[in-house]
Specification:
The protein has about 150 residues and is of the alpha/beta class. The protein has eight helices and six strands, in the order H-E-H-E-E-H-H-E-H-E-E-H-H-H. It has helices at about 5-10, 25-35, 55-60, 70-75, 90-100, 120-130, 130-135, 135-145, and strands at about 15-20, 40-45, 45-50, 80-85, 105, 115-120. Strands 1-2-3 form a three-stranded mixed sheet. Strands 4-5-6 form a three-stranded mixed sheet.
Length: about 150
Amino acid sequence: MRTVKDILESKAKSFNIVSSHTLVIDALSMLNAVNLSYLIVMDDNQYKGIFSERDYSRNVILKGRTSQSSTVQEVMTSDLPTVHLDQTVEHCMKTMILNKTRYLLAFDIDNQFAGVITIHDLLREVIANKEEIFDTDTAHELLNQDEGGYIY
């Protein structure tokens, strides 16, 4: 089965990095520009957290803050679950489900930040490797069921 390292190597280089001192309004503009749901927060090449659309809605809007005066550091998520480069896609899926999160932080053997694994990354893996996950009979049955569970 594919690993965290395989997923990260297949992803484009990250340009969604922001400083913790960035104003939320500027981070939102960057989110829009890169067309992603999160930004990696780094200071002096050290991982600090992520800033996501969910952070904005929960920690700015719902708490009455303003995006013109709040910094990313004040509203970012810094306590996400972690995985290592040699761990499998299956392990990542279980970790996401257990922790009810959409993101996992990947670290290398030296505990250096290596990247972010998203729920979308895992879904792409499942779709690309569906032959390994579902046997032919099971896939055929799933494709031929209607909403009532009847097999055609």
